[in-house]
Amino acid sequence: MDNEVAEIWDANADFWDAQMGEGNLTHRHLVAPAMERLLDLRKGEEVLDVACGNGQFARRLAGLGAHVLAVDLSEQMLAHAGARSAEFEGRVEYRRLDASNPASFQDLRSGGFSAVVCAMSLMDLRHLPPLARALPRLLGPGGRFVFSVTHPAFNGTGMRRILEEEDDGGTLVQRGGVFVYEYLTPKVALGLAIPGQPRPQLYFDRPLSELLRPFFEAGLALDALEEPRFPPEVVPTRPTSWIGVPEIPPVLVGRLRPVAGRRGGD
Ligand SMILES: C[S@@+](CC[C@H](N)C(=O)[O-])C[C@H]1O[C@@H](n2cnc3c(N)ncnc32)[C@H](O)[C@@H]1O
Questions:
Q1: What local confidence, expressed as pLDDT, does residue 158 receive?
Q2: Which residue among 116, 217, 224, 238 has the highest number of C-beta atoms inside a 10 angstrom radius?
Q3: Rounded mean pLDDT, 191-201
Q4: At the top level of CATH, which class does the domain 3-151+185-258 belong to?
Q5: Rounded to the nearest 5°, which phi and psi values hold at 213?
Q6: Where in 123-207 does DSSP place strands (E)?
Q7: Index of the ligand 1 atom closest to the CA of residue 148
Q8: pLDDT, tens digit, for every residue of 48-94?
Q9: Which of 200, 222, 210 is nearest to 145 (CA)?
């Protein structure tokens, strides 16, 4: 088990669960709608939710008719997930699993899932190849892997959100943006997902090419990509909120599928 990462998320679990509930603004407006579009779920499908946190997305999918196995590294996150899921008995099962460890996926049934999802967590996984290599084996015919991630090009630890004010011929104009000063070299850095969280988390920042490389090498191909934006009626809660920079996407959502005839996986 990745104890360093597990300890951080255990320490953040109470705060995270209180903030996230059944989905915060980012999830409700960006992540969930885009992931659900790319998933195109059918009733009764078996879904594996990797790094499920407090289980909010797993419960959404169960509400849409899926049977979900939701896994996470943090026991405290899983405790919150279980506590919120009484009405989903038989439709969501939670289990502890380290997605950075290749051995973790061996016990899961070959072809057992119509879909695998990973919501806003690939940047939290220390190693991506174990998950990438497991996907071709775990996914049944027509299977897909749908992920969302902090946008590698705009929303990483090598970026700074800026707010500028300009006197434009007598009118004060404020403009938000992102100043990117590090991108290409993968790095591990502490950062905050939600302001006020008790412990900064470890981010494993990768440029887009490195984020997708393990999946391509495992024999998957990208067949859909979205950069969702907040609808205009959602108002910023802080001056540097992502909601105030509608032309810059904070989240990237994608779909990968095993390519028929291409060898990959484990
Ligand atoms: C940002 S939270 C996202 C939770 C959830 N997917 C959501 O969207 O609400 C990241 C989660 O990744 C989990 N995590 C980090 N490393 C992991 C690993 N190696 N295996 C499984 N889960 C991991 C953490 O415990 C945490 O619950």
A1: 93
A2: 116
A3: 92
A4: alpha beta
A5: -50, -50
A6: 139-150, 159-168, 171-180, 187-191, 201-205
A7: 8
A8: 999 999 999 999 999 999 999 999 999 999 999 999 999 999 999 99
A9: 222
Q: How many residues does the chain have?
A: 266
Helix (H, G, I), strand (E, B) or coil at 79: helix
H or E element, residue 173: strand 171-180
pLDDT of residue 242 exceeding 70, the answer is yes
**Nearest CA owner, ligand 1 atom 8:** 119
Give the pLDDT confidence of 110-153 residue by residue, as tens digits.
999 999 999 999 999 999 999 999 999 999 999 999 999 999 99
Amino acid at residue number 108:
L
| DSSP symbol at 157 | T
Q: Residue 146: beta bridge partners?
A: 117, 255
Domain boundaries, the chain: 3-151+185-258
Q: How far is the centre of ligand 1, averaged over its atoms, from the C-alpha of 5 (Å)?
A: 9
CB distance 251 to 35 below 8 Å: no
Ligand 1, atom 4, lies closest to the CA of 53
Confidence bin at 213 (pLDDT 50/70/90): very high
Pocket lined around ligand 1, Cβ cut-off 6 Å: 2, 5, 9, 20, 51-53, 56-57, 72-74, 77, 97-100, 119-121, 124-125, 193
96-119 average pLDDT score:
96
Instruction: Give CA–CA dist 219/148, Å, rounded.
Output: 19
**Which is the closest atom of ligand 1 to the Cα of 23?**
9
What is the Cα–Cα distance from 139 to 128, expressed in whole angstroms?
17
The residue nearest atom 25 of ligand 1, judged by CA position, is 74
Q: Is residue 85 classed exposed, middle or buried when 0-12, 13-18 and 19+ CB atoms within 10 A define those classes?
A: buried
